[in-house]
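Students often ask why we bother encoding 3D structure as a string. The short answer is that it lets us treat folding as translation between two languages. Here is a chain of 317 residues written in the first language.
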Amino acid sequence: MRRIGELGRKPVLAAVLAGVILAAGACGTAREPASAGPVTAAQPPVPGPGAGSLRLADETARSLLASMVFPPGARALGGGPVPAQLRRPAEVTGSGHLVLRHQIRVVSRPAAWVLRFLRRHVPAGLTGSGTGYSGLAARPVNFLTWTRKTPGRGLYSAVLVVGVLAGRHGLTHVRADAQVIWYPPRSRAEYIRPVRYSLVTVLVRLLNPRLRVYRRTFASRTVIARLASTLNNLHANPGLTLFCPLIASSVRLTFRPRGTGPAVIAAAPSGCDSVAMSASGVPQPALLGGSATIELASRLLGVRLLPPGQAKPGIRH
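And here it is in the second language, the structure alphabet:
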């Protein structure tokens, strides 16, 4: 069992393949997903946007943490106890493909002074994306969130969350969490090669104020290719839990092949930044996105769909 923690220790890769590993107390041996193994000639890569990897995410997390500018005189916590409020990040995005690394420092300055210093010393390459507090109102953890606008190829996000907690005797504890989410590989079965498909059926259901159903089947190669492109260009969903307003419509595309070789592929963009996929009735990993597919489907059927609400990843405090 190995603990993922501060830089300077023996390098260890941390990941979460079924939930979130919090570096404060999670132990385990990190592994690459089986589907992310080496590509061979018999197993060509899936066209479309490139996937990330556990190793890339961990390297990025280390780089983020190294860019952190702590106040002058900040020192390592050493063997002292970690305050209960700082035993986990101030906030974290729930994902099945998250690497989290952290450092904790103690500063002999009041918390208000530390916060002012941090706001003036944003790490290079990052931009402020939020502030807030968590925990008890009587003794909150104030936090700042900095984001790398362009996380890097294969990465969904690269974020640095810094929590500040006022301690006793004029001391302040600072916890910096580098949080990196990477895109997993897409399933080969769900990739749509337009030349292998002869028909696509577009089904739209409007739920309010009453149920209305619109359906058309297209044999046009151009239509098939355009719809396929909106799906082939999406990343696999990196295990995000997404929250969005009530959805008032549904869209489903069914791609039917020429002959009996390829699988029948069905795609159901939810309007909540996620697309459910299946191949010959077998569920495949969901994709992230789908707004372009919904927009094109609605134009093809001449149906006006209300724009979906902005989906937001679930945040844990």
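Translate back mentally: The longest helix spans residues 54-66. Keep this in mind for the problem set.
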